[in-house]
Input
Amino acid sequence: MKKILTALLCLIFSLSLVACGKEEKKDTTIKDVVNSESPKEAEKKLEEIREEQKDDKCDIVLADTDNVTITCKGKGKSAFGGIYITLEVVNKTDKDILVGADKCSNDGTMVDDLFSETITAKMKSESDLSVMDNNITEVKNFKGIFRVMNDSTGEMIEDNIEFSIE
Output
C-alpha cells in the first residue's frame, strides 16, 4: 500500500511540474529559413524575421562634420547571429571616401565589428555595421570611432570621430 501511495504521489508531483512549464519563444534565424521544408514555410519564417526587425528602426545622428553625416537608421539582433546597426553615411565632400569603424564595444566589452563603406562624392549610402557574435543579442551602450579616408589616395580625412548608441 505504501508503494502504491508513493508512486501515486510521485506521479501527481511530476504532472504538476509539467503543467507549470511554459513554451519558450524561439527567435527565428536565417538558418530556420534555409532549413524550411517548403517555400511557404520559408516565406513565413522570413516574414517573422522582418516583423521582429520593424521595431528596431531609429533615427540617431552619430556624427555630423564638415565631411560626413552618419546616422543610425536601425539596430537590433541579426538574423545571422550577433547584432547589426544600419548606418546612413552622407558624403559632403567632392571626393570618393571610405568610412570604417574601429575600437567598438557593446555594453563595456570590446567587439570585432564588420563595417567599411565607400561613398561616391556628394552621395549617400546605407549599410550595416555587424558584430557576428552569437553571445551578443542586443545593441546596448555601443561605442566606437569612425575613420574617414580619401578612397583614391588613402589619405586620412578625419580620424577618431567618436560615436555612442544607448
The helical segments are 2-20, 30-34, 39-54.
